[in-house]
Amino acid sequence: MNVFGCGYWARLYEDLFKNRFVIDENELIRRLNAPNVVKNQGAAAVGQYLENTYHTVKRSNQANRMNQTPKEIFEETTTVLAKAIAASTPTKPPKPAPESKAERTEIFISYCHKDTALLDELKVFLKLLVRNDVLEYWDDSKIPTGAKWKDEIQKALNKAKVALFLVSPDFLASDFVMRKEIPPLLKAAETEGTHIVWIPLSHSLVKQTSIADYQAAGGCDPARPLDMMEKPERNGVFTKICEDIMSIMKNEESVVPPPHFTSSPLISHSDSTASNRQT
């Protein structure tokens, strides 16, 4: 048997009971953490390392401990050893907390730039609600100069509690709107409770899309879109829409009935690639 193998530990414990010495926790940790350069040299080098550290654990107060029984010394040594092993055992870093999703607190307005005039009419009504801290809305006019516009749109999509679609032929023709904005909002409606509110601005083929699975906004009739109304009548419709949105933002039951899903596709994809939000 190698003199620095199991025999070493047997002799160590034998001396422990015979000599009644105090084990220093820091020195014991040093033994358990022998340098890799020592470990890599084999059992003899490790044994020699332990032999050297062994002589450092005897303390000057041995005489004060002569009245301890072997059992008491054993129990104390076992406690110190357990602490030393725990201190020398590397701990795994804590797992990072799962990234929480952004709270949905805003209205995301999806529209085509050719329909900006009707959007501006709606904003007149929304402005009072913003001033009164009833709601916050977002549209792409709020993208800061120099910002990455796709990133800004994605952030706004993730915060949408209400998705407001201003539907027109130009809106449905927009690749970016129909491929990048509408799908994540419809998914959020199914999985996270985002409310879908759509406003028929003009006659269109909206029935050929999944948007038609949702009831049009309160006060709206797809058979009589906003561009067929005079401004006073549109004001009445915008008032009703804003009242419905206020109810949603206050977590009251919306007056808009829940959607009845059909198998209608979202859009017939062309081979062209969506590139710019400026539609």
Task: Write a structural description.
Helix content is 44%, strand content 8%. The protein is rod-shaped. The protein contains 10 helices and 4 strands. α6 links the parallel β1 and β2. α6 packs across α10. The protein is α/β, with parallel strands linked by helices and 279 residues long. The chain has 2 domains: 83 residues, no CATH class; 144 residues, 3-Layer(aba) Sandwich (Rossmann fold), CATH 3.40.50.10140. The chain has a 4-stranded parallel β-sheet with strand order 2-1-3-4, with helices on both faces.
Concise description?
With 279 residues, this protein is α/β, with parallel strands linked by helices.
Evaluate the radius of gyration.
Answer: 37 Å
Arithmetic mean pLDDT: 75
Task: Outline the low-pLDDT stretches.
Answer: 1-5, 253-275
Instruction: Indicate the proportion of strand residues.
Output: 5-15%
Largest sheet: 4 strands, parallel
How far apart are the first and last residues' alpha carbons, in Å? 84 Å
Taken in chain order, the helices and strands follow as: HHHHHEHEHEHHEH
Kindly provide the name of the CATH class of the largest domain.
Alpha Beta
